[in-house]
Write a structure and sequence with these properties.
Strands 2-1-5-3-4 form a five-stranded mixed sheet, with helices on one face. The chain contains five helices and five strands. It starts with a strand and ends with a helix. Helices cover about 35% and strands about 10% of the residues. The chain is of the alpha+beta class. Bound molecules: FE2/S2 (inorganic) cluster (2 copies). The site of one FE2/S2 (inorganic) cluster (FES) has 12 residues, from loops.
Length: about 150
């Protein structure tokens, strides 16, 4: 099959049971996307497929022929590229502790902003509710998403 990952067209061969998450982490070495629950409950594995947020642990890679996948590595791909504004906002707002949920939060936050679900703090909370943070950084994650949405 072939698909585009972070702007690069890839031809790959995968077992039809392989999840997109395992394809990214185990086959392509893109370990920025994290495995939390591996069952669709935590959001740590969030990536964008054709611009829409998905839990990559629940997505079969074999179904993605022709799709465009964006992972956290795709937001600032070059060593000298500036961080994406939402990545910078997470730093500016101290929106993480251990960081395990962070790439999923950022990819989900990006989707939330692109979808226009940032009209109020409550709306952001609702549309980010699939992303769990065990460290409890929710207030600052909300600030980072809201700050970036205002500049969008
Ligand atoms: Fe996919 Fe938790 S690892 S939702
Ligand atoms: Fe630790 Fe979110 S920063 S789980």
């Amino acid at each position: 099959m072939s698909l585009t990952i972070n702007g690069t067209r890839r031809r790959i061969s995968v077992d039809n049971r392989t999840s997109l998450l395992d394809l990214l982490r185990e086959h392509l070495g893109l370990t920025g996307t994290k495995k939390g629950c591996d069952a669709g409950a935590c959001g740590a594995c969030t990536v964008l497929i054709d611009g829409a947020r998905v839990n990559s642990c629940l997505t079969l890679a074999a179904r993605l022929e022709g799709a465009k996948v964006t992972t956290i590595e795709g937001l600032a791909p070059g060593d000298n590229d500036p961080l994406h504004p939402l990545q910078q906002a997470f730093i500016d707002n101290d929106a993480f502790q251990c960081g395990y949920c962070t790439s999923g939060q950022i990819m989900s936050g990006l989707g939330c902003i692109q979808e226009g679900h940032t009209g109020s703090p409550d709306e952001i909370r609702e549309w980010m509710s699939g992303n769990i943070c065990r460290c409890g950084c929710y207030t600052k994650i909300l600030d980072a998403v809201a700050q970036t949405a205002r500049k969008h």
